[in-house]
Amino acid sequence: MKNLQPVLIPRQLTLLLILSTGLLNHVMIIPSILHASGRDGWISVIISYPVLILATFLIYYTLKNSPPEGFFHLLRAKWNKAFVWLFGLPVCLFLLASAYITFVDLIIWLRAYFLADVPKLVIVIIMTFTCFLITWSGVKYMAIASGLLLPLVMIFGFFIAFTNTNMKDPSLLFPIFSDGFYPVYKGMIYVLSGLLEIYIIILLQPFSKGKIKMHHLIILGLIFLGLIMGPLTASIMEFGYVEASKMRYPAYEQWRILGIGEFITHLDFFALYQWLSGAVIRIGLFIFLLGFLITSSKNNYRMKLRVIVPLYVVFLSLLLVDIDTFYFYRFLYEFFFPFAVVFLLFQIIVSALIVKAFSLTGSR
């Protein structure tokens, strides 16, 4: 296998992760947190932070003690190929499932609010082709695109947060623990399903020019935390936790009530920019990482078409299967997000233990 040439500095990796995971933290998991914890959802976010800190230390330990080629390169050098596949298969399935869920959720949102009269097949084909081009461009250009897209995404986010200030009632965040501690602990499941995606940086390590340091991970974790806390507290303060928990897209509903004076309204097309930016980068990146894990045919930062095309054929085949919206969201709430927490915790802990075992073996 040709040695990979690192092409990204850690700051670029951070921007790439913020944009790709931002859609999950800022949009997709908010309804589940509200449904599980209600008004105490923001408390779940705060209580989840110590778990994130512990996970961050373990991830840093794994990164620090892995070779520049990455953790999975270390596994291939030390383990039998069958064991590497056994350990890597759940990661591949997680990447594929995450990309699929992001795509389906995006299509549902587009058809509900913007493209109700456009056939679903047309939207699916156009968006799949767009994501295909993102994956084919390679991780270097994904990071460059993230650096260009993310500033506007952040500006629009701060814009909606400050513009709707007069509609927020902070008293709706209290009292806390009115239903006991159980809802808070239940909400932590969904909060951590977003926060623990910081694990993806282990998969991106082979493309990093410089060492990923602890402060990079701490800052990244704090940003993930803010991406959840912002729209969650805003939804509760603007709509009340009862109404907010009934909404599928409370973050988007904040755009729909936005008004500046009497004549400036309907600025929700800015949300379309945010959603599409996060979705195409997230899907393109996850399919790229999936191809990176399953093949040894790598050329620095790009993947060959003979790898990408079959992946997208499988991906498109899954997308063409019609799924009822109710059961899709029920699947996310009851199965996928809880499974994601267990899976990511397992991967983070076991990866650190494997690296520790290798270091002990090597020191003898």
Automatic annotation (TrEMBL):
Q: Name one Pfam family in it.
A: Spore_permease
Topology of this chain in the membrane: Multi-pass membrane protein
The record's principal subcellular location, in a coarse class, is: membrane
Where does the UniProt annotation locate this protein?
Membrane
Residue intervals passing through the bilayer: 46-63, 83-112, 118-136, 143-162, 182-204, 216-237, 272-295, 307-329, 335-355
Domain of life of the native organism: Bacteria
The entry's keywords: Germination, Membrane, Transmembrane, Transmembrane helix, Transport
The family note in this entry says: Belongs to the amino acid-polyamine-organocation (APC) superfamily. Spore germination protein (SGP) (TC 2.A.3.9) family.
Quote the protein name from its UniProt record.
Endospore germination permease
Species whose genome carries this gene:
Rossellomorea oryzaecorticis
